[in-house]
Amino acid sequence: MRAVDRVIAERLDSGVPLVGQVAHYIISAGGKRLRPALLLLVSGALGYQGPHRHALAAVVEFIHTATLLHDDVVDDSKLRRGNPTANEAFGNAASVLVGDFLYSRAFQMMVEAQSMRIMEVLAEATNVIAEGEVQQLMNMHNADLDEAGYVQVIRSKTAKLFEASARCGAILAGADAMLEAACADYGQALGTAFQVIDDVLDYAGDATVMGKSLGDDLREGKATLPLIAAMQRGTAQERQLIRGAIESGLGEDEARNAQVLQEVIGIVQRTGALDIARAAASREAERAIAATRGLPANLHSASLVQLATQLLARQS
Fold it and tell me: How many Å is the maximal CA-CA distance in the chain?
């Protein structure tokens, strides 16, 4: 990962000062680097130790960071990882344009791997991620979204880059089609579990640990799994309250927002919706672990199992 960070620092260099300033700002803000770590672990588990793994790990981090820059503009987010978002610090225009720079730099770098298969995988992933973002936008304030629709969005928006990262690690190692598919399944399951837990923490986390405000999803009118499960299990009055909150979002009245949020959190907790969501994440983590059974037994593959297990206990 230190080698990946060196590649990131080198390839963020630009002749336009603002580009480097904004890009460094968000990349150095303390992200988990899960996607590049996943690529390194898979390639290591399959015995590949060549230099392309560092460059491609940086590529997936650049793609991820570009999506964050664009997401925060779309969602009008103010905080990320406890710090002002790039759009809050530099403005929407700079954030969008630097996100575009990171996408284009990522594609410059993936060409250097000289693998048409890797380019195909990452090009498809970025396209699917964009489709997932649009799907999520269309689902804003949709209180009728069901679990299948929710999963479809997070598989596109979040899990796809996890899947692509794991698949690229397998491709670098020269894995056969069956092993490549198993690695991709691992990444998809891990990414799905990650997002479900993220959505749980929006109603059960510690804002100081998470580095963002609780209730952001409700504020934006997002029907995530905890809300979907709460509406299925709640009373008619509770369903109506949640439906109204999703359809209208949280407004400008902070006192009223706090009251509605506390009422919704209470319903989510009383109905066992958080346990339902955690169980869904646990099933995905188990699916990820099952996908590692065809990998060689070594420290890297053991770390993949550990990563899936520990993901369920994350607090931020």
Answer: 59
